[in-house]
Design goal:
Elements: E1 7-10, E2 12-17, E3 20-25, H1 32-41, E4 45-48, E5 52-57, E6 60-64, E7 72-75, E8 79-82, E9 88-100, E10 110-114, E11 117-124, H2 130-140
Helix pairs in contact: 1-2
């Protein structure tokens, strides 16, 4: 059996910046779709809203879009809307909207386990620049001194 045949499902919204995906987790009402919509407004593409499916390919986790309602996201108070989307992207980052980052410059990068792979994890930052920071982290990476 190839590793691509096993699918894990997560209650999360995932968007891609280029080929790099961020999976946004957290309890209902924590702002998963809101952050995703902000990222999409900056040029990201939706992979999956509310249910993210992970497959392993060549030892790396990829998020694939579920076949139901591709490119549709729920905007609280607005309804279901169509947005730019893609069908697959490699998972590079997890944002946990259920926890708040209190440190200005966290001393170490948090990681979380997704299908046996350690993935960098950020906690929610309650600031207007958070989506822009996540977008640029995916597109350009971290500064070498911060790694």
């Amino acid at each position: 059996m190839s590793d691509a045949s096993v699918i894990a499902r997560y209650h999360a919204t995932t968007v891609a910046v280029g080929d790099a995906a961020v999976m946004i987790t957290g309890p209902s009402g924590s702002g998963k779709s809101a952050l995703a919509l902000e990222l999409i407004g900056l040029g990201a593409q939706l992979v999956a809203d509310d249910l993210s499916q992970i497959v392993m390919q060549e030892g790396a986790p990829f998020v694939i879009a579920p076949p139901e309602m591709p490119g549709v996201i729920e905007a609280r108070g607005v309804g279901l809307i169509n947005v730019p989307h893609c069908t697959k992207a490699q998972l590079q980052l997890v944002v946990d909207m259920g926890q708040i980052e209190m440190s200005r410059l966290p001393s170490s990068q948090a990681v979380t386990n997704v299908n046996g792979c350690e993935i960098e994890c950020l906690f929610r930052v309650d600031a207007p620049y958070f989506a822009i920071a996540v977008f640029n982290l995916l597109r350009h990476g971290r500064h070498a001194a911060a790694q």
